[in-house]
Amino acid sequence: MVSAPVQVAPPVEAPARARRLPRWVAPVAGVIAVVVLYVAFRGKAVLPHDDDATLFHWLNDARDWVDANRNSSPIFLYVVNYIRLGAAGVYDAIQAVLVALGWPGLLGLAAGLGWLAGGWRIALVSFAGFAGVGVLGFWEASVETLALTLSSVVLSLLFGIPLGIWAGRSPRVRRIVTPVLDVMQIMPTFSYLSPMVLLFLIGPASATIATMIYAMPPAIRITAMAIERVSGVAVEASESLGATGWQTLGKVRLPLALNTIMLGVNQTIAAALSMVPLTALIAAPGLGEDLLRALARVNVGAALVPGVAIVLIAIVLDRMTRAAAQRREGGTRARAVRWGGFAVLTAAGLALLPVLAQDFPEQWEVQIVRPINDVVDWIEAHWYTFTGFLNDAVAYGLLNPLQDVLTSAPWWLVTAAVLVFAWRVSGMAAGLVATACLLCVAALQLWEHAMETLTLVLVASVITIAVGLALGVAAARSRWFAAGLRPLLDAAQTMPSFSYLLPAVALFGNGRFTAITASFIYAVPVVARLVEDGLRAVPGTVVEAARSAGSTDRQLLWKVQLPMARGSLLLAANQGIVMTLAMVVIGALVGAGALGYDVVAGFAQQEDYGKGLAAGVALVLLGVMLDRITQGANGRRSPHKKRNA
């Protein structure tokens, strides 16, 4: 039997691989489409600002209802008023203790706490810092600022540390708390003030509560992180010996996490001290009052001196808490030396109290306002050509054109462009959140002022990120440059945000560019640090492999280090933009206008309260939009990875 020949089927050709368009085609097409639509619809469907908007009147009516029912509504009688009285009681108690100590007792206590935290060096820094405040002539106002800061920190830690412990032990609680903390940290400081005035009136109580809310997120986050990172082996060993959950927490988790929790205390104090001067807008006492009066008179010298006093307090508290966080427990002799030094220094200060006057001696004060103003006058006379050129170049070359585009474009076109950009950069969720934020801003009837604020933020962010990137790259590539830059970054990060207005006013006077300069000084240190850390974290083996392949320094940077540090670079951009927004809004105090001015006007004039409250909400929405876009980009795969997928 002859078998039939086997027929072999012809080979099936693989389908031709679809040709893909270059990656740049879609973005360029999108930009062209937006430009065409802008030209076609320019000036149409815009939302001009209206100070007499219905929403503002409705919010004013809500404020009037609250004022009328403050002493009759159960919510105020049994909740809000007791919270206000409790916060006021904490502030009054701490202020009474600080005042009773007098300047000798407070200097002795500061030196003693410094010795206890970090030895004689920190004791010397603490003594010199508080003595410097007295020499500047702002002892009484500094004590009020210190009392407000400490009362806010005490309340922040009282609620923040237990909540952080809970979040560190429960993933479910952490998932619930994290988005709330994100919003709290994104919110510009101005946004906290209007609701506080509505609920708690003006004064130290509302200032304490506002500062507490602003300063609490670091305490919660860092405590949760510290508890979560405690060695599982130590916890299991404790539980295997029969310890209860509370015993394990008190004897294992908290002792092992204590140093990290102290870093949270440090960050909480720094956040509180940056917020406290701003609460002068709601009649809080302290150095913020002197600073606001001087800024209103454009008296740089009178503004700089209380600013320096705030910086000195910040440095003392920062060094003290950092030393406590980094301290290593010694033996019995070391503990005896620490506590003995604390007792001697504190007792010495208290012993001098009956001998010396309670008020800081006026003859020891140094007046430096006039010399500072003389320097400012010299700068204005000799640097005007440069500062004026820089101011005009940014205003006419960047600010005015961008602001004209954003305010004359149809609101739907701006919203659609943001949706597409956010979707492409950070994904669908970020795009929808950004769109919702812009729609809410439009509903608040503050579109035009929001676009003016967005203009300032975008221009300031571009300048800040560019300079921060350059400094970070230089620091990562040169240890000598990094060593020289580090003290400047440390000092800049210690300063409260209010202090950044002073050099900007001295150089450029009042105006939008002053706000941009202040935000640049405020945000550049964080951007530079994150960029440097990201580049230094690139594995050395990868760098050596690139060098052995013949890469130049420039190729190594652009093709290896920057792509591998993408996460740190995007985090730097995120932090730079959020911090720039916070500082640009404060720039309303020096003539930046826009939403920041609306918030300030809401404090100053009763009829503008509704507009100020709505502006605070609009600032939060802008912050959430910008944060979601930049944070979401970090979760997306890089274009290089997409091409190789």
Keywords, separated by commas or semicolons:
membrane; mainly alpha; single chain; globular; 27 helices; transmembrane; cell membrane; disordered C terminus; 645 residues; transport
Write the layout of secondary structure elements.
Blueprint lengths: L24 H17 L12 H16 L4 H45 L1 H16 L3 H31 L1 H16 L6 H8 L3 H25 L3 H9 L4 H31 L11 H10 L3 H27 L5 H21 L16 H14 L1 H25 L2 H16 L1 H16 L3 H31 L1 H16 L6 H8 L3 H25 L3 H9 L4 H12 L1 H21 L7 H11 L4 H27 L3 H6 L1
Helix pairs in contact: 2-26, 3-4, 3-5, 3-8, 3-12, 3-13, 4-12, 5-6, 5-8, 5-10, 6-8, 7-8, 8-10, 9-10, 10-12, 11-12, 12-14, 12-20, 15-18, 16-17, 16-26, 17-26, 18-19, 18-21, 18-24, 19-21, 20-21, 21-24, 22-23, 24-26, 25-26
As a percent range, the share of helical residues equals over 70%
Structural class: mainly alpha
Number of strands: 0
Categorize the overall geometry: globular
Number of helices: 27
Percentage beta strand: under 5%
> Termini separation (Å)?
55 Å
Query: SSE order in H/E notation?
Result: HHHHHHHHHHHHHHHHHHHHHHHHHHH
Residue ranges: pLDDT <50 for 5 or more in a row?
638-645
Q: Oligomeric form of this entry? A: single chain
Can you characterise this structure?
Keywords: Cell membrane, Membrane, Transmembrane, Transmembrane helix, Transport. It is a multi-pass membrane protein. Belongs to the binding-protein-dependent transport system permease family. InterPro entries: MetI-like (IPR000515), MetI-like_sf (IPR035906). The chain crosses the membrane at residues 24-41, 93-116, 122-139, 146-167, 192-215, 261-284, 296-317, 337-357, 430-447, 453-476, 569-597, 609-626. The protein has helices at 25-41, 54-69, 74-118, 120-135, 139-169, 171-186, 193-200, 204-228, 232-240, 245-275, 287-296, 300-326, 332-352, 369-382, 384-408, 411-426, 428-443, 447-477, 479-494, 501-508, 512-536, 540-548, 553-564, 566-586, 594-604, 609-635, 639-644. The protein is mainly alpha-helical and 645 residues long. The longest helix is centred in the first third of the chain and has 45 residues, at 74-118. The protein is globular, with a radius of gyration of 28 Å. The relative contact order is 0.11. The model is unreliable at 638-645 (pLDDT under 50).
